[in-house]
Design goal:
By secondary structure, this protein is an alpha+beta fold. It is 36% helix and 16% strand. α24 runs parallel beside α26 and α26 (753-764) runs antiparallel to α27.
């Protein structure tokens, strides 16, 4: 072929690779490398080039590792459950199973068209009973470990989707799926007790190679805060309000308390005032209106947490109550304000307006006292603050604490509070238990059975199965009976479905239309023949399904043993392949990654993961940056700027798409799409093809040293760039190599073309696998010594370029003693000079110019040289 035709070349090799099983995993696991993508949700929209970016990145890494002699596991699957398919079913009447699997066919075709080296024998589908059987099994494991419980709670409710949302699925107060405003609602829901793992989820981040911004996002979401829990007695009543603060050193400056509108005390204000009035009638003289309180609380609860956090104008209402500052003895008012959330600390704060910006704004608006207790120095005599002072300094107006330096002597404050029994050291978290119940159909049925009779008698799985001799279950019992969530009565009547019943299949006799209850609740077949595992009487199955984040929290484990019918994955397979060596994916840096790490740790604690594997599932994590549309906006159907592989590959080829995506910029940077750039990359690939056509059959066994230097430095640079995931600079190096090589060719430099192509094609292979394979096979026919067949083409794995060894570079050629510099006049090459490498720097421009003038004297003598452009060690150009 004289013309490069990607449509013929790429289709041919994709077929041969698949037929030969080229990318099947070497199950020996020798020198293992597990390279993982965040698997996609197969939506109705096709994959676009932004999705492809990450997949090409992991494909380059996988191909590189194979050529380095590693056993590579590089699988792909489908995060197939989810609300969009159910919404589509509501709209069209097409069953989610049907629409989802039609979408999977499209996604799979597109991935194959890009030439990605996935081992499809490891493919998984989270909506298949073979997969969700083990999702249900893992749920029961969590339940038996005391890490799954059901409890009434305020939940995020999407009125449009008619389902509960986890905190992570609420973005700026709106449902991440529908975009509708989220409201609060009380429901009985299933939770996973992820809070038990909060400290480990923070501390273990230190030992893994992740982007620092991702680690920071994880830490911020968990939100660990060290401080003190302090009791404020309600004035006139033997009852207290507990306050968590990270600044107990400012306690003498607390001039009022602020409660969240959801705080339990707020619900009891009328009764509390009545109790106080029996002993202190003065409280009835305070300005207070219960109707104002009720109205304010209702308005606050209607707002999203995000709106309340970001509300710049502070609002509030006096509660009618007072508390006693435990160190000063002063009576301070209790207010209710929506900027305080129940999700932080105890839902109550001690307001220190002199040293907190929000409290200062609130106190100023409602004319509340401001008392400064932290001063910049002992000599600071500030009297009136114009703004809150939040810096460090010395304590004043603070009784026995006067003179203490903060934060250096912070522990002395904590110790004093403890001695006086008015406070204790405390750590709190922003993280709340993971709410996993969903009132939707297209998800995993929660494998729990409820027995009304056992619930009446106080029986449950725990009361019947946990014994004092069972250490793992003792821990579960302690959790179940503790004063914190979950409570013992949260388990009454509940039993995990017997393992022999799994998988509990999704019923088909359902109506997808939203009713506020799971569609499964309307199924008659789902409840047929259900009996209580405890008493044997009639019982009913749970009708809620699991959050789809549960499906994706363990899929990386199933990938290592996807056909196992006896367990979710064998210990041997887990030990062979895990943890994941390289994990690449974009979104959900909080939700998915946090939940997946939680699952790993629970399964680790349960003994299914060898201790030697460690407590983290993903050793290295990288995220590709967004590829913006041609209009520099995020690719979206809304903006009509989506570019798909189907738009590019038929005209330019998969290798052009792959190379261009990687060349756009740094892997993790945001970059805009450009069709002009695609065309430019297509021209580069054609140049490589033409140069091969012209030279590969040339027989020249001699080679000048400068070519050895060029070839070896190119191999080293591309090797280093792949390992550092600097794919754009690796491709730049290929372009420089091409330019330098063709320049040398024009000058008559001796080139051993057989050696050049044998090595260069191999370093190019992970990036442009089809072109590299085509040229490699033609080179083999030309005398590389590979095994030949009648067709002179690939028939076995051993002949493919992708099973060859990665080329080594020779260190002796990496230290240059001289460099050849092309000399141009007005941009046209007119000769070259050889000069010592040590003097080729820009500082020695005059010396280089002098040597260069000798070579092009006939062009520059007697004319005006306007300027001389010198690129150190690369080129010198005389502009005349």
């Amino acid at each position: 072929m004289n013309q490069y035709d990607p449509s013929k070349i790429e289709a041919k090799w994709q077929k041969k690779w698949e037929e030969s099983g080229l990318y099947q995993t070497d199950e020996s696991g020798a020198n293992k490398k597990y390279v993982l993508d965040m698997f996609p949700y197969p939506s109705g929209a096709t994959l676009h080039v932004g999705h492809i970016e990450g997949y090409v990145g992991t494909d380059i890494i996988s191909r590189y590792f194979r050529m380095k002699g590693a056993s590579v596991l590089h699988p792909m699957g489908w995060d197939a459950f989810g609300l969009p398919a159910e919404n589509y079913a509501i709209k069209t009447g097409i069953h989610p199973d049907e629409s989802t699997h039609e979408n999977i066919k499209t996604f799979k075709r597109q991935l194959r068209s890009v030439g990605l080296s996935y081992d499809w024998s490891h493919e998984i589908d989270t909506s298949s009973p073979e997969y969700y059987r083990w999702t249900q099994w893992l749920f029961t494991l969590f339940f038996k470990m005391g890490l799954a419980y059901k409890q009434e709670a305020d939940v995020n409710w999407c009125p449009s989707c008619e389902t509960v949302l986890a905190n992570e699925q609420v973005v700026d107060g709106k449902c991440e799926r529908s975009g509708d405003e989220v409201i609060k609602k009380k429901l009985n829901q299933w939770f996973f007790k992820i809070t038990d793992y909060a400290d480990r989820l923070i501390d273990d981040l230190a030992g893994i190679d992740w982007l620092e911004e991702v680690k920071t996002q994880q830490k911020n979401w968990i939100g660990r805060s060290d401080g003190a829990l302090i009791e404020f007695k309600i004035d006139g009543l033997d009852r207290e309000i507990n306050v968590f603060t990270t600044r107990p050193d400012t306690l003498y400056g607390a001039t009022f308390l602020v409660l969240s509108p959801e705080h339990p005390v707020v619900e009891e204000i009328s009764n509390i005032r009545k109790q106080i009035s029996k002993t202190d009638n003065d409280i009835l003289n305070d300005p207070y209106d219960i109707e104002d309180v009720k109205s304010y609380v209702a308005e606050a609860k209607a707002k999203s947490d995000a709106d309340r956090r970001e509300n710049k104008e502070k609002t509030g209402v006096f509660s009618g109550l007072y508390c006693i500052n435990p160190v000063s003895g002063e009576k301070i008012p209790v207010w209710i304000a929506d900027y305080v959330l129940m999700g932080y600390g105890t839902g109550a704060i001690m307001a220190v307006p002199a040293h907190d910006e929000r409290d200062f704004e609130f106190a100023t608006k409602f004319n509340l006292p401001i008392k400064q207790v932290i001063f910049k120095s002992k000599d600071d005599t500030t009297k009136d603050l114009s703004e809150a002072y939040v810096g460090s300094g010395v304590l004043k107006n603070s009784g026995d604490w006067d003179g203490l330096m903060m934060p250096d002597e912070f522990d002395k404050v904590i110790s004093d509070l403890d001695k006086k029994k008015i406070g204790e050291k405390k750590t709190t978290y922003h993280l709340r238990d993971w709410l996993i119940s969903r009132q939707r159909y297209w998800g995993v049925p929660i494998p729990m059975i409820y027995c009304e009779s056992c619930a009446h008698d106080g029986k449950s799985w725990f009361t019947e199965n946990v014994t004092a001799s069972d250490s793992a279950a003792v821990s579960a019992r302690e959790i179940a009976s503790s004063s914190s969530t979950p409570r013992n009565d949260d388990y009454a009547g509940w039993y995990p479905a017997p393992e022999s019943d799994l998988p509990i299949l999704l019923p088909h006799d359902v109506d997808f239309r939203p009713t506020g209850k799971s569609p499964i609740a309307l199924s008659k077949s789902f409840q047929e023949g259900v009996t209580c595992p405890g008493c044997g009487g009639p019982a009913s199955r749970e009708v809620d399904t699991m959050d789809t984040f549960v499906d994706s929290s363990w899929y990386f484990l199933r990938f290592v043993d996807p056909k196992n019918e006896k367990e979710f994955a064998s210990r041997e397979a887990i030990a062979k392949w895990l943890p994941v060596d390289v994990y690449v994916g974009g979104g959900h840096v909080v939700q998915h990654l946090l939940f997946a790490r939680f699952f790993w740790k629970v399964i680790f604690d349960a003994g299914y993961i060898e201790k030697s594997l460690g407590e983290e599932p993903f050793l290295k994590l990288r995220a590709p940056g967004w590829i913006l549309g041609p209009d520099s906006r995020k690719m979206s159907k809304r903006w009509h700027n989506v570019v798909t592989p189907d738009d590019i590959i038929p005209k330019y080829g998969a290798d052009t798409l792959r190379m261009y995506e990687m060349f756009l910029g740094p892997f993790d940077a945001m970059k805009p799409w450009s069709l002009t750039g695609v065309e430019g990359m297509s021209r580069f690939i054609k140049k490589i093809y033409r140069l091969f056509e012209e030279t590969h059959a040339l027989e020249n066994k001699e080679q000048d040293k400068q070519i050895d230097i060029l070839l070896n430095s190119t191999i080293k640079k591309i090797t280093d760039d792949i390992e550092g995931m600097r794919f754009n600079t690796a491709i730049s190096t290929m372009m420089e190599f091409y330019n330098d090589l063709t320049d040398a060719q024009k000058l008559g430099t001796k080139i051993n073309w057989s050696e050049v192509w044998e090595k260069f094609l191999r370093v190019m292979a992970p990036f442009a696998p089809h072109l590299a394979e085509e040229l490699w096979q033609r080179l083999a026919v030309g005398g590389l010594g590979l095994e030949k067949t009648k067709s002179q083409e690939l028939t076995v794995k051993s002949q493919s370029i992708h099973t060859q060894n990665w080329p080594e570079y020779d260190e002796k050629y990496l230290v240059q003693d001289e460099v050849v510099i092309p000399v141009q006049v007005n941009g046209k090459r007119r000769g070259e000079i050889s000069i010592e490498y040590s003097v080729s720097s820009i500082e020695n421009k005059a010396r280089v110019e002098e040597r260069a003038r000798e070579v092009v004297a006939s062009y520059v003598d007697g004319v005006v040289v306007k300027k001389v452009v010198y690129v150190p060690g690369k080129i010198i150009n005389f502009v005349i």
